[in-house]
Amino acid sequence: MKKKLTACILALMMIVAVALPAAAELLKFNDEGPQVGLLQLKLKSLNYYTGKIDNKFGYLTYLAVRDYQKNNGLKADGVAGEDTLAKLGIGPPSGKPADTPDVLRLAYGSKGSKVKEVQERLAALGYFAGDANGEFYDSTYYAVIAFQKNNYLRADGIVGDATWARLFSKDAISKVASLPSAVLRLKLYDKGADVTKLQQRLAMLGYYTRQVDGVYTYYTYLCVRHFQKINNLTVDGVVGPQTWELLMSDKAKKASDDSSPPAPKVFRLQYGDKGADVLALQNRLADLGYYAGAKDSYFNYTLYLAVRKFQRINGLKVDGVVGPLTWNLLMSDKAKKASDDSSPPAPKVFRLQYKDKNADVLALQNRLADLGYYAGAKDSYFNYTLYLSVRKFQRQNGLKVDGVVGEKTWNLLMSAEAKPYEKK
């Protein structure tokens, strides 16, 4: 997919170079044409744009441009001006003359001032050690290929529009600067430019499919573990020098290179699941006197409470999740009935609030962290940070904002309809 996308971008670059003047300064809402299509392709390759490539600067394109600008230190106005286009590698980069040839092609045997500029720039970046004489032969050819490989361009030894734009941009990766620091360490909840580069490279290799945001989220952590697993590294979800260096090299294996068999599925039923196993669960719990709700094959909140009660009476871990231990005991003749419970009845109203401490609070912390609302300690304690996180979730999901997790808040939080955190 990435190869096809890259090929499309290069093809559109050639079309745009002929169809439009190279000095076009900006693209904005309601503009149309191949230059807009190229912009959409570039943003799509970086996971900012999710719409179709239709050569029309619509609202989705506007939002994608604005998000890209926010994450790359540009003025976030949704207008693709000279700086934004240069950052994306479209058109002449900032500080370069606007008279770059419409279709630039410097190849083996080329001569002239443009070749000399390329040689000088490659030397400054550590790729070229020869004489900048304006003649494109062996030493220049191999320097161009090395630069292209290190900057994730097509390594053909030809300086076309894409290579030229990248070579003279402020984001060009030098031969020395590409190596990681010996103390490099990126981990869960880190933020910054290095995390952005990490996500972009993981996206190029097919591991990361969400928007690049510069935040080391739980999803980023899972993508790093996937990369480490396929590339035979220590699988810890932490990016140290070894992981970084392999990730940024041309030896990095893509996600599509994974030929290992899928991990065996571990039996697990939980809130929100549907299917025949859930129906069997409802029937069995009903037979034992724990469940009196609908037999609809849906793992609802009433069923969740019934599972918890069964686990408590039968001496199992009380988490409301049906794993192998719970299922095996439930389906055996050793399962205790609800009537065997001599303890006081559990409260009927589900409620978690400030200063509570139990397994449900830990589940709450984990779920809010996955959705981007909570970045505090996972210690099973309902602290003030968690209280504020609950309020944020309630506010963004149209619930009563009181910081208390009742049945309504819990049900939505644990469902697929829960909205992830969006900074406003």
Which descriptors would you attach to this protein?
5 domains, Muramoyl-pentapeptide Carboxypeptidase, domain 1, about 425 residues, mainly alpha, two-stranded antiparallel sheet, single chain, 16 helices
Describe the structure in your own words:
It is a single chain. With 424 residues, the chain is mainly α. The chain folds into five domains: 2-87, Muramoyl-pentapeptide Carboxypeptidase, domain 1 (Orthogonal Bundle), CATH 1.10.101.10; 113-167, PGBD-like superfamily/PGBD (Muramoyl-pentapeptide Carboxypeptidase, domain 1, Orthogonal Bundle); 193-257, PGBD-like superfamily/PGBD (Muramoyl-pentapeptide Carboxypeptidase, domain 1, Orthogonal Bundle), CATH 1.10.101; 276-340, Orthogonal Bundle (Muramoyl-pentapeptide Carboxypeptidase, domain 1), CATH 1.10.101; 351-413, Muramoyl-pentapeptide Carboxypeptidase, domain 1. Helix content is 42%, strand content 1%. It is built from 16 helices and two strands. The protein has helices at residues 2-19, 34-45, 59-71, 82-87, 113-124, 138-150, 161-167, 193-204, 218-230, 241-247, 276-287, 301-313, 324-330, 359-370, 384-396, 407-413, and strands at residues 351-352, 405-406. Strands 1-2 form a two-stranded antiparallel ribbon. α1 (2-19) packs antiparallel against α2 (34-45). The chain starts with a helix and ends in an 11-residue tail after the last helix. Residues 14-24, 92-102 and 177-182 have low confidence and may be disordered.
Round the Cα radius of gyration to an integer and report it. 28 Å
Give me the CATH fold name of the largest domain. Answer: Muramoyl-pentapeptide Carboxypeptidase, domain 1
Could you name the ranges where pLDDT drops below 50 across 5 or more consecutive residues?
14-24, 92-102, 177-182
Under CATH, the homologous superfamily of the largest domain reads PGBD-like superfamily/PGBD
